[in-house]
Amino acid sequence: MKMLSDLGVIIGITLMYSAPLIYTSLGGVLSENAGVVNIGLEGMMTIGAFAGATVAYFTQNPWIGFLAAGIAGGLLALLHAIACVTFTADHVVSGIAINFIGPGLSIFLTKIFFDGAAMTIPLDLDNKIPRPLNGLFSSISPTNPTMARIVDALDSIFNQYATVYIALLLVLAVWFFLYKTKLGLRIRSVGEHPRAADTLGINVYRIKYLAVILSGVLAGFGGAAMSIAVISNYRAALISGQGFIALAAMIFGKWKPQGAMLGCLLFGAAQGLVVYLGSTSLNISSQLLAMLPYIITLVVLMGFVGEARGPKASGIPYEKE
Amino acid sequence: MKGNKFVITLISILLGLVIGGIALSITGFNPIEAYKIMFKGVFSNPKYISWTIIRSTPLILTGISVSFAFKTGLFNIGAEGQFIFGSLVATLVGYFFHLPPIIHPIVALLAGILAGALWGGIAGFLKSKFGINEVITTIMLNWIALYFSNFMVFWEPFKRPNRDASERILDTASIQILEKWKTSDAGKAFLANNTFLKDFLNPPVNFGIIIAILVAILIWYILKHTTLGYQLRAVGFNKDAAEYGGINIKRNTILAMMIAGAISGLSGATQVLGVSKETAILATMEGYGFDGMAVALIANSNPLACIPAALLFGGLKYGGSKLQPTMGAPIEVINITIGVIIMFIAMPKLINIIAAFRSRKRGVEIENAK
Amino acid sequence: SSSDTPSEVEGPTETEDQGEAENTPASEPIRIAMVTDEGGVHDQSFNQSAWEGLQRAQEELGIEVSYQESQQDADFAPNFETLLDAGNDLIWGIGFKLADAVLDAATANPDQKYAIVDHSFGDNTPDNVVGVMFKAEQPSFLVGYIAGRMTETNKVGFVGGIAGDIIWGFDYGYQAGVQYAAHELGKEIEVLNQYAESFSDVAKGKAIAQQMYQQGADIVFHAAGDVGTGVIEAAKEQGKWAIGVDRDQNYLAPDNVLTSAMKRVDVGVYNVVKDLVEGKFPGGQTITYGLADGGAVDIAPSSNKHVPQEILDAVEELKQKIIDGEIVVPYNEATYKEFIDSLK
Amino acid sequence: MNNIDYNTKVIEMKNITKKFGDFVANDNIDLVVHKGEIHALLGENGAGKTTLMNILYGLYQPTSGEIFINGKKVEVSNPNVAIANGIGMVHQHFMLVDNFTVVENIILGMEPIGKFGVVDINKARKEVEELSSKYGLYVDPDAKIEDISVGMQQRVEILKALYRGADILILDEPTAVLTPQEIEEIIEIMKNLTKQGKTIIIITHKLKEIKQSADYCTIIRRGKKIGTVKVDDVTEEELASMMVGREISFKVDKKPAEIGDVILEIEDLTVKDNRGLDVVKNLSLKLHKGEILGIAGVDGNGQSELVEALTGLRKVESGKVILQDKDITNLTPKEIMESGMSHIPEDRQKRGLVLDFTVAENMILENYHKEPFSRKGRLNHRNISQFTVELMEKFDVRPRNDKLTAGALSGGNQQKVILAREITNDPEVLLAVQPTRGLDVGAIEFVHKYLVEQRDKGKAVLLISFELDEVLDLSDRIAVIYDGQIVDIIAEKDADEKTIGFLMAGGGVEDERK
Ligand SMILES: Nc1ncnc2c1ncn2[C@@H]1O[C@H](COP(=O)(O)OP(=O)(O)OP(=O)(O)O)[C@@H](O)[C@H]1O
Ligand SMILES: Nc1ncnc2c1ncn2[C@@H]1O[C@H](COP(=O)(O)OP(=O)(O)OP(=O)(O)O)[C@@H](O)[C@H]1O
Ligand SMILES: [Mg+2]
Ligand SMILES: [Mg+2]
């Protein structure tokens, strides 16, 4: 029975950990499917985390903050798009630049808005993104201990911030968008064979701009999912490496939304496992435990995933003849 | 063409400084004043120059590492982890081995090189054996290296009591220049009369910079003038053609990652033997690898150009760090400036347009003058 | 025995006139600066606290203060150099990570005064260096005692950042406090204990805390920097107790932060600066702040919001016992074992 | 032929000039095309044919000149304008998205939209099926492009244009990659289309096809229009000399072969393709010194895999390859090369060249580790350059600059670089796969001459080509490959197009079964 609630906790942690990564790697999926490599996810995520926390604090409304995070990420992505699409910059170079500018700007602005402090002021629980199922399970207090365990586990799993559910819905939405709609078809065509799209009268540049900006919006959401849901403010080290993990998850997922989600969930589950193992009486050094998620990812890649091919024209600046 | 690239880089640096200056003005700081402070902070005293060089040395090497990988068609995000692994192993050798001077640092450096090569080689192996994209593996390996290093620092015989750091390397393993002499009476007496040298030698000046320059030349030479470089580049540009030409793709992929890793590992080793003398607990990534990527990009993946690029980068960071105590300006401006510089370097097209526009304007002015 | 506690022999009252401070020309104000570690000056933790101490000194003592942030370990040494050249009278290194850099700088510049927070060079302290240490295990013991008294589930938790001497002090002091209370109450209290191996991964802090609450802990203490933010966030969400660290962290979650184990770096910094200004720079020594030393370490003032008066009264008694040396608070595994044995 | 409506000029291009920098790709070209006609554009590589058509389709803007479509002056600023004016183009290099299905490729840019903004794939499929049956263009609507034959890809391209309501179709070298059967088919399709009122402009180097299909032919040489002729009034030879400005001999000059000992022996070879299916099945073949052995066959019958297996680029599952008494089965490409085999690869840009390398660097791709190009791991740039310049001279690679990247060369010159490199290896066995693909007649003549020369030196050449004419012209013996096996070997004197075409289509196999 203890196992049940342990499992609940692990799943709960998995979801919490994965959600910000899922947004961001979906962003990567969109951008790369349109042929623009986005190493700058980390920077876009950071500026989203900053903008989300700041705007939510000043408006006292998490949703406005969440939107602002998307806009901020989108704006930074616009810069990436201008560089990569209009000025045919090397995508990696531009992405790295974004990773300097995004975090630099975030802290810089935080200091301006918050009297020189390097973190934003925390939101009250009420001003954070809501938890739609909060209280649902704790309101049932069954007398049967087994039932209580089950309810506990359910609470651990499902009592999540709305951002978690939105992330999962977005996976579906992005999948639908990419594979079922006109725009999705065009985005993918532009990533595979831009010249072909061009000869069919598709405006390659406009499509790329759209996809890159959307990718920034999603990465921005990912940052906000961290700063106004997982915790309640932005601080300098809040985003340190998640953007790169999301990038890895996207490659892991073979550039597909559902695959990227799996990659993020795997990583989150590994973290959940680490936290769980750390709580057991197993005497494993915590430094070695901390390595585990990364090792698990590598092993899964070796055993199950193997070679993956990205969109053919990814990373190649497109120039009209 | 080459001159063109150089000019573009210069203009990018200028534009980066301008935009950084704008950010400073917005926050109410005088940018001219700020840049003056930075400039002085780097050049006004020989010891600042030393510090800038010391600060830049590891970045030259990680920059070369990333550049080398780029040239062979690989994206080495793992310089950070290779650096960490290289420094860890160099510290282990520097502390546990008892060897005579000169031999000791050489052995420790080689150990660092090997460690980095191993760490990079893992990514190369996973790529050639399982086809796993090196971007993922190197990101994962960075974190594994970090935690492993922390794990090792806590290893009882290695941990320094009352410190969250390892034991310091033995003096025999140091690569600092004139380290003993500097503090000896003879040295002090000599330096008292020679303030330039005294100041210059004040920081932990070490052979790292010389090693870095030698490595830059070596790697440039390998890429350009050897069959090894030829085959690595061939694999980087076109695997299928290289395979057709009889070049072993898998072996060369592993080899390329190993060499890239070796250079980053060496970077870590020189940092330990020349500057830090120890491996400390790492709370986060220190950024040697990530800054190395920036350096490689500024240098357009040319190993030789990594030297000035890293000096620029190190100079900006070191000079920029003096803004806070003197004028209270936030140092984030430096990161923004660096980002903007890289962004402009990425857009030669834009720079060319700006340049063309300017020269047209000048042309018009000349016309008008006539 | 009392010699087991760190540097008990040296106290803040032991000062030695270096005779140098008076030589500072009166016309120029005294300038004091500090080098932070990678956390930066606004880290909501010891760097910020140190800076607040300096700012207070600036206001009250009419000196000039500044700081220099480090972005990586390699910055420490050049940062000390920069501040040296800027003509500072005293340069602080904030945090034990800077110990080596301080020692190197002090050796190279024997005429310059330095100070280090959270580290002791023991008998080898150069004459131009002051160490400032805090017996963090003591307030940790007190919050542990509060936790032990207040837990309803007989399970409490501790979340550490990256393991190491300093954090162990918090950890073992806290455990000792809990067990002391358990002993007093004659019951068994379990302490869940986990390290995040990070000072910045807030999600991991939150995950660990959630998991502890899920296992039935109702109070979790953290000594984990930003990771602790995640711990407090989890407490907030689950309506459980968290215990803050370093400063009074009640403001982060007024309804859920039960108390905090305070380590007033600002007080320590201020006191040394004040001594310097008064010409009593305590060079060559390590000043160790315990509960006895003017509130530099203590439980947070906001504790009375949630902790019943009777328990606070008991805490006061404990405090006295610690000051009197009746209770010797453990700060690492070995001393903790001794302590537990002594309880039996 | 009687579909032409001479009263309607659907296309009229006047004084079209296109400059790329200082280079004039089109120099004051006029072109008139009538409704219902098949109009061929003929010219050497780089003459400017594609450029002219790209201008018509709105991909390039002319430096000067005017375009009239159906008598109306049109500014074709982008492909959308061309499409709106009923022009469709099938590009020299297919413009298909590999991992999309046939239907997705066809509707891209003009997607039928159903509920919730979803692409209505069912409707699209139906439309495609209708079009395909109307014009006799058979395709599998749900297959992915990467899984279908080149011939079907070609049909997809044409359907793409028709789907957009094109009345005027531009086909840029549509037959370059097709098998003889597929060529027959496409000519049939073109004629069929003109019957239904469509107009076709076709670019091709193959004179025979022009004779078979076109009504009129406009010849372009070095960017200038030489003239427009009625195809019925001229011979192939006349077309050829108009195109290059000199006489061209079609017949490959060769003495009778002096066939020697067996040099390469393939025994019961089995090879799998990328999907893991056997595509070369127990294939056996012997190649002699002093002969050109042509392998005729329709693309996809295991030729590519056979070559890759022979050269060490693909694993041999079972069987043996023996070169000069040495078993070279599953040796590395390098070892095989060193045993005396050279290889002109099928895809020059994918396998044959490192496009980012200079010509000089490409010249030593297989020999960089040998003297005089390197010693003890150190490259000797001077020797490399000298060697390259000599070869560029000998093989007439233009422009004659060994520091140019290979990517900057035209396709024909790229092929010459490869040829130079492989022939200079002086191999015992030369595997020539599609050696003249996409080349103009002048260049083809050149390549053929070298292959024959190689044979005459007593070396062996294994020629694999989908161009039956080429195989027939060059080979001393012809082996026909079908379904991964050699179904028959025919001596030059007994070979004719009909028998071989029959065998290529699997005729021989059925015979045996009977
Ligand atoms: N985008 C471009 N920019 C500059 N030069 C180009 C470009 N595209 C082609 N060229 C130049 O055009 C020349 C011929 O290129 P192209 O591929 O069209 O050859 P081609 O005329 O089709 O010859 P072939 O039939 O041999 O392939 C090359 O020398 C190349 O330098
Ligand atoms: N984008 C371009 N930039 C510069 N030059 C070009 C470009 N495209 C084509 N050219 C030049 O124009 C010339 C004509 O090229 P085009 O592709 O029209 O030849 P073509 O007649 O189609 O040849 P082929 O038979 O090989 O297809 C080429 O030789 C090339 O030098
Ligand atoms: Mg053409
Ligand atoms: Mg061509």
Automatic annotation (TrEMBL), chain A:
InterPro entries: ABC_transp_permease. One of its GO terms (molecular function) is transmembrane transporter activity. The chain crosses the membrane at residues 6-24, 36-58, 64-85, 92-114, 161-179, 209-230, 236-253, 260-278, 284-305. It is found in: Cell membrane. One of its GO terms (cellular component) is plasma membrane. The keyword Cell membrane applies. It is a multi-pass membrane protein. Pfam families: BPD_transp_2. Keywords: Cell membrane, Membrane, Sugar transport, Transmembrane, Transmembrane helix, Transport. PANTHER family: GUANOSINE ABC TRANSPORTER PERMEASE PROTEIN NUPQ, SUGAR ABC TRANSPORTER INTEGRAL MEMBRANE PROTEIN-RELATED. This is Simple sugar transport system permease protein.
From TrEMBL, chain B:
It is found in: Cell membrane. One of its GO terms (molecular function) is transmembrane transporter activity. Pfam families: BPD_transp_2. InterPro entries: ABC_transp_permease (IPR001851). Keywords: Cell membrane, Membrane, Transmembrane, Transmembrane helix. GO terms for cellular component: plasma membrane. It comes from the Bacteria. It is a multi-pass membrane protein. The chain crosses the membrane at residues 7-28, 48-70, 77-97, 103-126, 135-155, 205-223, 293-313, 333-357. This is Nucleoside ABC transporter membrane protein.
From TrEMBL, chain D:
It is a peripheral membrane protein. Residues 11-247, 264-508 form the ABC transporter domain. GO terms for cellular component: plasma membrane. Its main location: membrane. SUPFAM superfamilies: P-loop containing nucleoside triphosphate hydrolases. CDD domains: ABC_Carb_Monos_I, ABC_Carb_Monos_II. It is found in: Cell membrane. Keywords: ATP-binding, Cell membrane, Membrane, Nucleotide-binding, Repeat, Sugar transport, Translocase, Transport. Belongs to the ABC transporter superfamily. This is Simple sugar transport system ATP-binding protein. The lineage of its organism: Bacteria, Bacillati, Bacillota, Tissierellia, Tissierellales.
